[in-house]
Write a structure and sequence with these properties.
The radius of gyration is 15 Å and the shape is globular. With 160 residues, the chain is α/β, with parallel strands linked by helices. Strand 3 and strand 4 form a beta hairpin. The protein has four helices and seven strands.
Length: 160
């Protein structure tokens, strides 16, 4: 669905997309297909404005309760996911839901784990794994995907 029209309405398609993120908000990443996903650090307060309909939280401990649908991936700081089998289904769900609702991906700081997950989402969108980290650094945060192990994880993430 094209995301055009300053008022959130695409007259050609007859569709309202106000349920999506405003692409100028901090942390909102537009993927090549047009889907928008917000990345953020949980250490910072939630910005004014729209809240997500779905969130994926990448933390070593279970996150606090949120008033929206969530998934938690146990993922230690500067590390990799503890439950490898849960990553692809969780990120695939986030990717699918981003087509129709606001999705956010977050860790404590919003760079390493969040950047790694966003790079994996880019791969699900068709970005080659060899370019996914650069895509996220260029379009989300220049310091995203902080460690060698995280970069290697993205390089080995299965393409659809």
């Amino acid at each position: 669905m094209p995301l055009t029209g300053a008022d959130g309405y695409d007259a050609a398609m007859g569709e309202c997309w106000t349920q999506f993120w405003d692409p100028v908000l901090p942390g909102v990443l537009r993927f090549p297909c047009g889907r928008l996903v917000r990345g953020r650090g949980l250490r910072r307060p939630l910005a004014d404005g729209a809240t997500p309909g779905f969130g994926v939280y990448l933390l070593g401990r279970q996150p606090p309760a949120f008033p929206w649908d969530t998934r938690w991936l146990r993922w230690p700081d500067f590390g990799l996911p503890a439950d490898e089998a849960a990553v692809l289904p969780t990120l695939t769900e986030a990717w699918q839901r981003a087509e129709t609702e606001r999705v956010e991906v977050a860790c404590a700081g919003g760079r390493g784990r969040t950047g790694t997950a966003l790079a994996c989402l880019a791969i699900l969108d068709g970005v080659p794994s060899s370019k996914a980290v650069a895509f996220v650094r260029e379009n989300y945060d220049r310091r995203a995907v902080e460690t060698f192990r995280q970069r290697r994880y993205v390089a080995r993430f299965p393409a659809p």
